[in-house]
Amino acid sequence: MKKLIILITLLVSFSSTFSQLPCVTFHRTLYCYKEFDGDWIYNSQSKSGYFKEGVVSRVRCVVYNGFDYRISVCDEGTFEKPPIYKIFDSPTGELIVDSETLQTKEFIFRSTDSRTLTIEVEVPKGKKGYTKRKPSGTECIGLMIFQRVTIQP
């Protein structure tokens, strides 16, 4: 009986892991990944995941002095409204950028200090999309981060 419970627990944990697999590398797909002019380098802090409609998810990102950063959020487009993102300075809580204000999925900035940022991403409530490969009410969203050494004028 004990072995059966362990087996069922393992199967459930593996099935939830495997259901995430199509989305884990979403940020590396054609939806998100595009080549940029210049010396932009992929930053390994880029992530993907299933986001539930109406829920805010937070990711921390460390940026370093002397680098330019390009942060973009991409999605499958199964919902009526695009994802919203906000970038905050983690220690102070100061809002740096709000995608609704900018009305863009991409933000480019120069880091003059090394610091930690908090990136909040939300799929706004709207008409639900659904595909057989993911749970209803969720959307696969990619957070792409590129960096380059700051080019001095």
What's the SSE pattern? HEEEEEEHEEE
Helix and strand content put the structural class at alpha+beta
Please report the total strand number as a whole number: 9
* Biggest sheet layout: 5 strands, antiparallel
The first-to-last residue Cα distance is 70 Å
State the helix count. 2
Helix share, percent: 10-25%
**Rg from Cα:** 18 Å
Taking all residues together, what is the mean pLDDT?
A: 79
The dominant shape is globular
**Strand percentage, roughly?**
35-45%
Low-pLDDT runs of 5+ residues are 3-20
What would the keywords be for this entry?
single chain, 153 residues, alpha+beta, 5-stranded antiparallel sheet, 4-stranded antiparallel sheet, 40% strand, globular, disordered N terminus
Q: What does this protein structure show overall?
A:
By secondary structure, the chain is α+β, with helices and mostly antiparallel strands. It contains two helices and nine strands. The chain has helices at residues 2-24, 99-102; strands spanning 41-42, 47-52, 56-63, 67-75, 84-89, 95-98, 106-111, 115-122, 138-149. A hairpin with a 5-residue loop joins strand 5 (84-89) and strand 6 (95-98). The chain is globular, with a radius of gyration of 18 Å. The chain starts with a helix and ends with a strand. Mean pLDDT is 79; it is low at 3-20.
